[in-house]
Amino acid sequence: MAPPTSSAITLNINGEKYTLSVDHRTTLLDALRERLDLTGTKKGCDQGQCGACTVLLDGRRAVACLQLAVSAEGREVTTIEGVAEGERLHPVQQAFLDLDGYQCGYCTPGQICSAVAVIEEHAAGWPSAVTGDIRPEAGPPPLTAEEIRERMSGNLCRCGAYVSIVQAVARAAAVEAGAEETGEAVA
Amino acid sequence: MREFGYQRASDVAGAVALLGADPDARFLGGGTNLVDLMKTGVERPSRLVDVRELPLDRIESTQDGGLRIGATVTNSDLAAHAEVRRRYPALVQAVLAGASGQLRNMATVGGNLLQRTRCGYFGDVTKPCNKRVPGSGCPAIEGDHRNHAILGASRHCVAVHPSDMGVALTAFDAVISYETTEGSGELPLCDFYLPVGDTPHLETALPPGALITGVTLPSAPVAARSRYRKVRERASYAFAIGSIAAALDVRDGVVSDVRLAFGAVASRPWRARAAERALTGARADGESFAAAADAELAAAEPLIHNGYKVTLMRNLVVAVLSELLEEASR
Amino acid sequence: MTTTTGSTTATGSVGTAHTRVEGRDKVTGAARYAGDLPFSELAHGWLALSTVARGRIRSVESAAVLGMPGVLTVLHHQNAPRVDSDYIGVLGVPPDPTIALFQHDRVQHAGWPVALVVAETSEQAREAAEALVVHYEEEPHDVAFLGERPDANPLDTTEKGDLESELAASAVVVDAEYTTPEEHHNPMEPHAATARWEGGRLEVVDSNQGTTWVADELVKLFCLDPASVRVRSEHVGGGFGGKGVRAHQVAAVMAATVLQRPVRVVMTRRQMFSIAGYRSPTAQRIRLGADADGRLRALDHRSLNLTSTVYEFTEPCAGVGRVLYDADAHHTSNRVVRLDVPTPTWMRAPGEAPGSFALESALDELAEKCGIDPIALRARNEPERGPVSGLPFSSRRLLDCFREGARRFGWADRDPRPGLRRDGRWLLGTGTAASSFPAGAAPSTAAVTAQPDGTFTVRIAAADIGTGARTAITLVTADALEVAPDRVRVRIGDSDFGPAMIAGGSMGTRSWAWAVTTAARELRERLALDAGIPPEGLTVRSDTSEAIRALAHKERHSFGAQFAEVAVDVTTGEVRVRRMLGIFAAGRIVNPLTARNQLVGGMIWGISMALHEEAVRDQVSGGHAGADLAGYHVATHADVPLIEADWVDDPDPDDPVGIKGIGEIGIVGAAAAIANAVWHATGVRHRSLPIRPDRVLTAGEGARNV
Fold first, then answer.
1. Using one digit for the tens of pLDDT, what is the confidence trace for A78-129?
2. One Pfam match, by short name (chain B) (predicted)?
3. Do C573 and C694 contact (CB within 8 A), yes or no?
4. Which of A132, C296, C599, C667 has its CA at a distance of 20 to 30 angstroms from the CA of residue A179?
5. Whether residue C541 is found in the same domain as residue C623
6. Which one of C130, C522, C664, C701 is the catalytic residue?
7. Residue C664 catalytic?
């Protein structure tokens, strides 16, 4: 007997639960865009080669085009629609807006989701391909432009807004670091 | 992409049982290669057994001072792990040189070793390819093969294995553990990939239906002084055109232990044993390094447009070993 | 003084940095692109493309596919609605006949659209399109673009003076061949269109560079009443010349007409390599003859590109020398060879981008041979009038760009000898090149409405493909009305707003600004006369056709100077750009924030063109191997260093706002500056792009063997 080719699933997206029946072929990207009207996540290549569909899965960045929706059940999905806190833009969003970290805007949601994760990955001490000393004792490398570029390289921008994107990520990282310090001081 | 069934496994025995003997079923890990291949029609599974949630996501020290890495450990977690960074830096560098941050968060160690070649003919079902459709031909030999194999290929297939991680694992004598309905088994990575010959579609020695459960790295003090260098056609987010994992121990100016493996030159991560043999006991200097590279590359059979890889790999051997030598003498 | 952006007006919005008016929508994911708008009863179309490069369709086995789950219809040459492609479009040229989809059984290139499968879901449509069996009668194809082709057709030639005798009289001669590969636009947003019939009107929600342009083509192609077609394109995820009328809109309109429900057709990234247009590969021969002091006696630039068997498209590489340099004998020609390939199209700086790579590399070779600084060589050959036309320049501040750029880049300290500088494993070098791109304007219409609440609404069928057009129009209108920009709301991307220039040819912002300025100024005058605004608002419309026709004939161009520093590891072949600087004289800069971004973006295209981009056509199949973004490399973050772009004051005296246009000038000369820097680093000339690691390695071996 042929196995069922669709399933009823519940997806947890931006803190809300969505119950739907999905064709197993449906990627998380298509489920977001075509079933749930969450079209902020963009389809650039559908093959994991551009990063336009970057979302956060359980807090880590991932490409939604290679993630089957049925396999995303039980995981926390954060899309660009869930990055801001209500009306208040996330520091990364604000920096992209202020520093013109985009042109056509199509790669932007992916760049922003990726940047949010890059700042967290760096803070967690993850090394990158350009980190000189990767021993854990060396601690996190300074988040230089070179580090940001390498860590953001999974997000293509064909308009070529890379220079201002890197500046925006650096500014947002500084803002977040400052905010945390303030928070600690207050506590 | 054809319709398919989907089941999620919660333990290894269950996963292996779910897959059963069905040749049309596949294990789904991170999906970064399989789902892409399903979209391009290269893979058309009838069922997927999702193994991402199996309890194989640990990295543990072994009694002999090595590491055992679970099959569902993500590339990111592998590269961020403190012990891996201390003991096998080349492995960390190899993993970080691969793909992108997003893909490394999704991709798993088991899946990495089973990923398929990125040969453009293999990935396009409208074109012939002996690896995809045995007997249909290899258009790369006469066509676009700039990034194809110079070692160990055959007239049936000249594709290269795309893994970076696998190159470092090969250098450090990794052993693969797997599970079938018959029980568990092990395969050294050097025996894991089959020779190309006239069966390029048969890629690994893994028994049918087997699930990779982990990779064990034996203790290798030399690996603490290792590095991975990758050359590609852009600075990041691209497959290698040539890469090298190298580790070097020198005593009194003589090579006491050396590990060398090449990426993007063959259908599998290429352990450069001839070069290692030539180096062990030799003086640690540029001349020996070059001679060792030549010893390995004597077997190279480049095609019309990929002869540069011989030069590239020779230069990489000399450059990376020289860097390691300089570091050691600091 | 380099960042002055022209005289200020009452409000001074133009010339000061403004963040994008749609910026918040773009950073929150609220901006809806063509494939993002929901429609009830939406059906999904998936194109099936030919697997042969030339031949005849024997049969389309649609019966089996029609029985698959969710499949609604299969359109192909035997059942698709008929269209008429025998017309002249608004851009004054006939359409590429390949947009007349499914009209006959001929296959004219690999990846030719042979059918559209429409189904309830995209998963169903995709599987059915892949399962669709099409039988072909295959014929031998010819896709070989290799140097000299006796069947090449000279299309566009200028000749002045006796070339051979001037070359013979020259103290120094450069004679070299340069090649550039097939390049693809690859905007991040794939082509997407949704078509539907609503209340007797055809509405197409599309991603394009001009809604009235696409609407006009669809009207003519489907023989419809112009008033019955509306094309909308609110946000566009990049265009670069590739987003005009394409198979996806035509297929969507056909299916929506047949099914009488909304149908969306989105190209896959892989399909884009066959049906979205591309830049032809080029083979260019340049001969320069000069006196010992570098003065040019002879300039000969002959370029060859390919086109399809059914449409003549010229990549006018040889045009760049008609503007940049004069010579006693000055010959240029563009030739075309017809092959079994898709028709190429405009791609960012068509002609100038590959043409400047060849010409500006040759100038660098001439400077080397003459022992003259490359900038001094260009200064020595600065023409007073158009070298071919004899017309005066509207303005030409090329040497000012070089002077300012040289100062900021530190050019004066440069040792011209190659192969001397090293940083670890990297050899370092610097290079420069000139750039130019035509400045033009095209007729447009606009409407500006004053509302009783004190706000204003602009309606113009402009397209914002990432240029910042929406914001630029806001600023220009605000200045013309002498109000603050937050009182101006701009609506674009709707063919119902009337004819307007497309986002192309670096002419969009200038053409639209002219139209909105004309309307807004008249509106301001009317408001000044009688204070009353009726409840429905007071609207003034403009049409710039007459004003633009009245422009005096001049050589009108933007100019620039490009500088690059590269690092080359000759043992691995890796090339990295370490820094770039571009100084431009490109008219009045409307919004420095977005303009700088766009100029830098063009320069990044130059990096990508110099080092990465190349689509390899497989001679056996006639199609591509590796047609995706892993096989076709564009520059990533890691490939792009800090790049600076700036400008000298250069307002166009004949434009109401002073604009020239900046969309394309950034790429022109950029690849040459990088290639020249690679020579300076290594002593090896790379005359074929991209400068791949294997080419650097192989060239290095050749140099050692010499």
1. 999 999 999 999 999 999 999 999 999 999 999 999 999 999 999 999 999 9
2. FAD_binding_5
3. yes
4. A132
5. no
6. C664
7. yes
